[in-house]
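Running this now, will post back.
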Amino acid sequence: MTGRASLSLSPGLPDTIMELVNQALTGNRRALARLISQIENDGALVAQALAEIFARTGRARVIGVTGAPGTGKSTLVSEIAKAYRRTGQTVGIVAVDPTSPFSGGAILGDRIRMRDLAGDPGVFIRSMATRGSLGGLARATADVTKILDAAGYDIILIETVGAGQSEVDIARTADTTIVVEAPGLGDEVQAIKAGILEIADVFVVNKADREGAANTVRALEAMLDLGTAPRATQSAHHGVTINVEPVSRNSESEPAWRPPILQTVALEGKGIDRVIEAITRHQQHLANGEGEVRRRARLAAELEVILRETLLRRLMAGLAPTDVTAMVDRIFKRELDPYTAAQQLLAQQA
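Update: finished.
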């Protein structure tokens, strides 16, 4: 891939970071991989590097794929990527795998399942470990998405961990969220309760050649019929406490988006064209103003997270380790509750 033109970075960035960013933006895959590693490791200069490239982001279409383990998310992502490649579009894939809470390691097996894409210069695959983050994504997923966007990838596919009903962070990162279901995984309704249901822009019942696929489709239809609130607004604002200015939209002429329910057999490449068509229709739907609502809510959520992390780092930097240890000891002895302890630590910084 050729990427976009190189960027003249601020002189405050050291040569190593400047070289990595410039090389990544001009299509150097090794530099791109190294830059992503820097982001994952939270290097001291990453924030500056991201600030330099931010103006070049916002052009790629970001598609999230989530669902329970065993539904075939990786295979579906691979087939979607192949479909976009057939049209000449470049694809970046971020596959998030769970980190062991005991060993701290991760298998990162999604790249193995996507081996059919290996060797395609128009596809860049990056596996990421959650490193303890909840909600289905790694802490650095959004930043890595920005890097791939700035590097010129047309489509960015994000595959989440597959943790279940609480895995809703993808709705704050992707333009279009695909929720994947599969028959034969138990109670059809169990996997599609509130949360996962509300973030879906497209439902895909994968492994539709299995017995029970029709029941899964009917359960999804029933759950959609029970829903009343506009799904796009719910998912976009999920968890955001920073207020954003409302955006005018032509709601009278544009009906609310109802997530289509599609059936696929990803292992055989069946039904993928309909998924691509549904994604395209949803992207067109977002052009009525809803897309701007989502983007503004996404930026508000991101700003809130950055503020929270920055304030916590500043607070911890100003506290002596002995003060924190002493407070933990008092909490352990039930001499103090955690909320009062936090207030007292904050008061020391006032």
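The first helix runs from residue 15 to 25. More later if anyone needs it.
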